[in-house]
Fold:
Amino acid sequence: MPQLIAGNWKMNCLSAEAIALAEAIAAGASGITAELLVCPTALHVAAVAKALAGTAVAVGGQDCHQATHGAHTGDIAAPMLRDAGAGWVILGHSERRQNHGETDELVREKTVAAVEAGLRPIVCVGETADQRSGGQETEVVGWQLAGSLPKPFDGVIAYEPVWAIGTGKTATEQDVAVMHAFIREELVRQFGDAGQTVRILYGGSVKASNAVSLMAVPDVGGALVGGASLNAEEFLTIARAARAG
Ligand code: PGA
Structure:
């Protein structure tokens, strides 16, 4: 399976900038064997999907509500993202868990809603700096995996150590190898053989300068890229570092 290189644009770009960024990525995507995905703010999913129609670059959302519709002011339902042209959605990102109090149980409900709407979920897990310095990183990620994933699980995992997100600090290749091997074990424990093929992305300060070494780590199925995904050339350089299969 090719690696997946996903751009998490977070709360960035006005509409013209989002479209220009999407077009620049699509224009440079020929010859790239990785699967490419960009996740603009929900407001721009439709415009970016339109700009990317017929290209190799897919579009996703950054969150969705667990209900299909209803009295949830300010929220966005998974079928709405799908209707706007999204094929994917990021769920349980640490910024949602921290800033919006999202629990594992809520992330699991959102994941179910996403899959029912025809979206492919990218479920994020990862420990804080304190949890890592306390030696609890695998325990924390193990609980997140046990609580956030529905059975069966048809999606992708993103391991994003919270201390590496937007900080310029990247986990070492050794840290990534150990955690991805642990996540693989947990996936197989939860889902049997199906757990063998779930892609596990690494995220947290991935950039052009570290992408080759990170993407070569065993069991890394791609990258979830924040800051560096806002620059088309840098994002494409990361994508060129990806393994084909
Ligand atoms: P970063 O963000 O690449 O800016 O560290 C990654 C993410 O939050 O998905």
